[in-house]
Amino acid sequence: MEKLQYIKKFGESYMDIAEEIRRIEEELKKTPYNKATQKHIARLKAKLAKLREKAQSRSGGGGGKGYAVKKSGDATAAFVGFPSVGKSTLLNKLTNANSEVGAYAFTTLTIVPGVLEYKGAKIQLLDAPGIIVGASSGKGRGTEVLSAVRSADLILLTVDIYTLEHLPVIERELYNVGIRLDQKPPDVKIKVKDRGGINVTSTVPLTKIDKDTIEAILNEYRIHNADVVIREDISVEQFIDVVAGNRVYIPSLVVVNKIDLADEEYLKYIEERLKEFGKDYVLVSGNKEINLDLLKEKIYNKLGFIKIYLKPQGKKPDFDEPLIMRKGATVKDVCEKLHRDFVKNFRYALVWGKSVKYPGQRVGLDHKLEDEDILTIVIKRS
Ligand SMILES: Nc1nc2c(ncn2[C@@H]2O[C@H](COP(=O)(O)OP(=O)(O)OP(=O)(O)O)[C@@H](O)[C@H]2O)c(=O)[nH]1
């Protein structure tokens, strides 16, 4: 009897999960969307989200866990695309062969990291081996690669001029492993309680989801008592994202390689298709080194770096080696980057530049810095 149960338990193989995913996807395709079916569709989508999570955790990747690539530098960008579009070529051309690359422990797959140094920023670039269709349902090694990509600060959706149709496919694969491109986390708070049922309040009219549907999704995740506060007009998918948790929100840039092979007319056609796709893009050639500086600039801009010049008290600012921070950084962030005791011993800071009203303005830890600010930090003498 015990043995039978054991077999039953482990008999639920990848194939069963993949089959179930396929069945639900099929049903979703067949079900027309309207007011009457909204709840049913939402339930199917929630089921699908749960199955995908299961598939990924079984194949060893996915989930919210960290990944085998050690983060280094000021930010990380990952090339994601099908094989042979030229990812390794681009990575090699963009990274300084002499840059120091840390020790990486990979056991099962090779993700090649390199460091792009641009305008003083050190950007770690990852070359994920070609992703495969179906990776999100747990097929092959693709899931591990995709989960590596989850930890990136920027995703470079990479295709060549002949394979633009891969873009939505890659985007879907990323979506299915919980990666949301160019989206903000939905402004929704869920507080799970012991009793009282489901209470939904919204500060804006909800046009894409109703309270019944919200309840159905929560029930699918075995939540029967909760206060839900919604502050934007979210979709069913966005609500499932919040309930499931474990989603990452990453900006993206489309990189189209091999433009050396396109004539003018074809280039025009490509640009039109790219505009339809709606994401920021850059056309390059790795082999012929076309637009690589533009690519670097776009990567740098997308990552939202700012430069901060440090000025020791009573001395000249150091313009040669600015501190590289991300947009939105505060004086506190800078302190934390410089020395672990700086926050504790902080007295005040002086700032010259765009973030202040007058030069040498005195500010506190919460002050938000802007690009090219000059900063003096005054700490307590110990
Ligand atoms: N014409 C042309 N060919 C290129 C360009 N960049 C790369 N290639 C070629 O495309 C082929 C694939 O390049 P890789 O850099 O290995 O592609 P990849 O995307 O890393 O491929 P996987 O390692 O299989 O994931 C090679 O033969 C390159 O020489 C380019 O700008 N123009």
Automatic annotation (TrEMBL):
Q: Which positions fall inside the OBG-type G domain?
A: 75-304
| This protein's name | Small GTP-binding protein
Please give the Gene3D superfamilies that the UniProt record associates with this protein. 3.10.20.30, 6.10.140.1070, P-loop containing nucleotide triphosphate hydrolases
The keyword Plastid is annotated on this UniProt entry: no
TGS domain mapped to chain residues:
304-379
Which InterPro entries does this one have? Answer: Beta-grasp_dom_sf, DRG, G_OBG, GTP-bd, GTP-binding_2, GTP1-OBG_CS, P-loop_NTPase, Small_GTP-bd
Q: Which PANTHER family match?
A: DEVELOPMENTALLY-REGULATED GTP-BINDING PROTEIN 2
Membrane-traversing stretches: none
MF (Gene Ontology): GTP binding; GTPase activity
Q: Which UniProt keywords apply?
A: GTP-binding, Nucleotide-binding
Pfam families hit by this protein: MMR_HSR1, MMR_HSR1_Xtn, TGS
Tell me which SUPFAM superfamilies the record gives: P-loop containing nucleoside triphosphate hydrolases
Q: Which source organism?
A: Methanocaldococcus infernus (strain DSM 11812 / JCM 15783 / ME)
